[in-house]
Write a structure and sequence with these properties.
heterodimer, A: mainly beta, 6-stranded mixed beta sheet, B: mainly beta, 7-stranded mixed beta sheet, 0% helix
Chain lengths: 112, 111
């Protein structure tokens, strides 16, 4: 596996709180993407961060990438109940015809 | 808006039967992917392709074949369906290091 954690993590927080989700990967990657998947739907990309970027923001979302530790994080500020979903990080592995693999994910429940 | 269309959206198959899942994209993307997702788990890569008439094995290719007859179409074939292949299957497409677009998924139940 290319991923550090193998099992789906679960978090439950109250609306309005901030949350940070982490993932670590074992193989060099040029791009890390964060996805959100709501119940019964396909994943939708939230943020794409490249290996030459340390941080990327989009609205209430902030993604970081640390290539030295091969880890990435996604933070959501001021969570809403509608942020309830499973969040995945995905890595595009160089030298493998751009093979795209997903981490196990974090199931986030935001309670109103 | 990029579009990835999967068919069928849902299928019940008999153990030992042949199943073909189809995926069509209108994005003119080079890369296409097939993933499976089991309840409560992440997406695992089965096969992918970066050009027509060529496919690559992903992380869990056993029991699956893939076919990319054109840039727009990518099929996943289960020659002998088994109970363990009951899952939701997602197709996706991508161009370069850009956003990946997913289809709505196919729920396959093998009985």
């Amino acid at each position: 596996s290319q991923w550090g954690e193998e099992n789906l993590q679960a978090l439950s927080i109250q609306e309005g709180e901030d949350v940070t989700m982490n993932c670590s990967y074992k193989t060099y990657t040029t791009v890390v993407q964060w996805y959100r998947q709501k119940s019964g739907k396909g994943p939708a990309q939230l943020i794409l961060i490249r290996s030459n970027e340390r941080e990327k923001r989009s609205g209430r979302l902030r993604a970081t990438l640390d290539t030295s530790s091969q880890s990435s994080s996604l933070s959501i500020t001021g969570t809403l109940a509608t942020d309830t979903a499973v969040y995945f990080c995905a890595a595009m592995l160089s030298g493998s015809f751009n093979k795209l693999t997903f981490g196990a994910g974090t199931r986030l429940a935001v309670c109103p | 808006e990029a579009a990835v269309t999967q068919s069928p959206r849902s299928k019940v198959a008999v153990t030992g039967g042949k199943v073909t899942l189809s995926c069509h994209q209108t994005n003119n993307h080079d890369y296409m992917y097939w993933y499976r997702q089991d309840t409560g788990h992440g997406l695992r890569l089965i096969h992918y392709s970066y050009v027509a008439d060529s496919t690559e094995k992903g992380d869990i290719p056993d029991g699956y074949k893939a076919s990319r007859p054109s840039q727009e179409n990518f099929s996943l074939i289960l020659e002998l369906a088994s109970l363990s292949q009951t899952a939701v299957y997602f197709c996706a497409s991508r161009q370069g290091n850009t956003e990946v677009f997913f289809g709505k998924g196919t729920r396959l139940t093998v009985v």
